[in-house]
Design brief:
41% helix, binds pyridoxal-5'-phosphate, four-stranded antiparallel β-sheet, 11 strands, 484 residues, seven-stranded mixed β-sheet
Length: 484
Amino acid sequence: MHLDPEDWNAFRVLAHQMVDDTLDHLTGLADEPVWRPMPDEVRAAFNAPLPLDGGGEEAAYQDYLDLVRPYPSGNLHPRFFGWVEGNGTALGAMADMLASALNPHMAGFNQAPALVEEQVLRWLGEAMGFPAKAGGIFVTGGSMANLLGVTVALRTRATFDVRAEGLQRDGPRLTLYGSTETHGWARKAVELLGLGDQAFRRIPTDDAFRVDIPIMRNRIRADRAAGHHPFCILGTAGTVNTGASDDLAALADLAAEEALWFHVDGAFGAWAYTSDRLRPLVAGIEQADSLAFDLHKWGSMPFECACVLVRDAEAHQAAFAAPAAYLTPAERGVIAGGLPFANRGMDLTRGFKALKVWMSLKAYGLRRFVEAVEENVDQAQHLAALIDAHPNLERLAEVPMNVVCFRYHPADEQPGLADLNAINEEILLRLQERGLAVPSSTTVRGCYAIRACFVGHRTQHSDVQALADSVLAIGEEVTTGAGS
Ligand SMILES: *Cc1c(COP(=O)(O)O)cnc(C)c1O
């Protein structure tokens, strides 16, 4: 028995059908609702028992079409503005299929797939102003990329051998510094590394949600005076709440002054660096010791795809290398060149995430990605302008990049904060449930905010107008008690 198709010709027909259906789905998206709630009978189908005998490839595909494809969270759609979720691309999806079909083991092996990953890392390093000799690796997402960056920081800047001794020893407390707007990955990372959440000093921000650098400097010095060992500064390029970016050049200077590692979380905001127009927002990124960013958010690659770049490739390798008898390189043969990627992170067996980036850059060139990013920033500005021009809409934060936080706030009434929060939550849920648009929510200075994040390459200016119009119409409906 094997697991290839019993009838290759029939399978070929089915495989072509899968591609055709997929492309039909992508080209018909704009006419579909952004999201649809799942009917109970569909949900119940997921309780079916473990199949011991299969029903065949065609039936499995039909179940995908009936049960899965109609009910994702909607991020393929031009009017999806929630969280930070890219649309993906058709070419990226096809490249993922090719990567799966080729199925190379991406620990290294120095064959073509490894050279693809190394080349893409060099290209991305160049786009981010990193030196050619910088190292890096592709990982699942920004959270993992940031974790790896901070791990290299810890293992490089501690005064003892953290890999050998761990942190269960007496001695100075290792501390790191970011802002109160730092994304939630940082908490998970310091907990996982055994540093503990208290080691992460969350420094307040200014009115524009950028970390307050004088306070950070004082905290570093106070910690050192108290016998602690500061080792790393975390800067953010593009915070998830409002799209603010820390003054990264000033943070780089502070890190240099205080001899700390400088790590930047550029999950989506790093992309601004690729644009001549937007680069000033995140200038200083090129001075980071390590930079984490996603390709699957503003880079429009299908999930999953992120990378971390590390200026000192040797430090990167020294933080993770773990030789083993069964992985010993040879001068010749398949393992010549060793397993470089196994020595740059946690994963040994890895998929071929770099192929979709390599093919996309070859097909479209960096410039088209830059234009898509600039377009999204224009759309965010457009929405901000519509909000500012309307008496019943209120912007809740500056819009430096691609995130807009706002609420419905009827000018001729004076609802209290609790009422405004409830009204806007109801507006958001009706927008989503009717499939009109999918923004998400956050809290800005204690106010419930409708949050629209623009990272979709399919979004048009008309979608922005539609979002503003829908919020106004539903806002009216909610405040006058109409509708469901
Ligand atoms: C999304 C995000 C992350 C986490 O990245 P994932 O790819 O979701 O793991 C980290 N930081 C910021 C600012 C983000 O927006």
